Amino acid sequence: MRPEEIKDLAKKHGIEIKLETLQINDSGLDFIVGLGTDTMGMAWILRVPRRKDAVKAAEVEKRLLEAVKSEVLAEVPVWIIFHEELIAYPQLTGKPAGTIDPKTQSYQWEIDVENVPESFHRTLARAMVSLHQINDSARWKEAGITVEQVVELSSSMRRRMEKVKQEYEIHPERWDRWQQWLNTEEMWPPFTGLVHGDLHAGHIMVDKDANVTGFIDWTEAKITDTSIDFTAHYMTFGESGLDKLLTCYEEFGGKTWTRMKDHILMRADAFSIDVAEFAARSSLKEYKEMAEKELKSPPA
């Protein structure tokens, strides 16, 4: 989709975007995304759906955002335009903590990743606690949000693993490690909460002092195992970064359990399941190859 077409589409819905400011990201499976500034100087996010079913799924995300915006201690998108041909909202404060360069597939950072500021861990933990404490299952189920019960968590992961195993070769040692994890009850959480579901650096907004200011892209949000929101942090900042985040999380009143850290490490170990599932949804060859390589290799 050309920038001129997105500019015209925004104008149709009352937003006068300056063409020279418009940047297009067409890598998404469900939406083409434009970032541009209007004639009044306001920066906008413009999401153009690729298919009608993408809009239907977005209705759930819209209800979620409207419900959490007053409860989460971070900014969330406030959709001004919600139409079958365009979703638009003012850009949140700050910038993504890290943005993936499409050419190198590596992060371009807004924070010092060699010496991550304490402010980043503390403000991220504070926002995560406020999110995870939201757990009114009946309310979210009514809104169309996926709700998983505690007793379903390990069995749900088991089904996902077995489905991937039908398609891919999985190294026996890796498979055995996963089965041990699934069968060790104390590894799994005794509670659930509302998770963002895809809380990596690209979806975490920060200010110039590395304070977390907001979360974007809530398409994976649901009631489930809250450790999901720690996995990307561990995979990006290592064990020391995870320890700092967990310490801050507990200080702000976040619920944990004895083997939560071990559980997060196992979630990261099984991340190739997520990659394989994404490969199936997207039909992207590079992700299928990535999943194949990781799954058939022995665990570290």
UniProtKB/TrEMBL annotation:
Could you tell me what this protein is called?
A: Macrolide phosphotransferase
Q: What InterPro entries does UniProt report for this protein, alphabetically?
A: AGP_Transferase (IPR051678), Aminoglycoside_PTrfase (IPR002575), Kinase-like_dom_sf (IPR011009)
State the Pfam families in the record. APH (PF01636)
Q: Which CDD domains match?
A: MPH2 (cd05152)
Q: Where are the transmembrane segments?
A: none
Enumerate the spans annotated as Aminoglycoside phosphotransferase domain.
26-261
Give the originating organism.
Alkalicoccus daliensis
Q: Which UniProt keywords apply?
A: Transferase
Cite the SUPFAM superfamilies for this sequence.
Protein kinase-like (PK-like)
| Gene Ontology molecular function terms on file | transferase activity
**Source organism, top-level taxon:** Bacteria
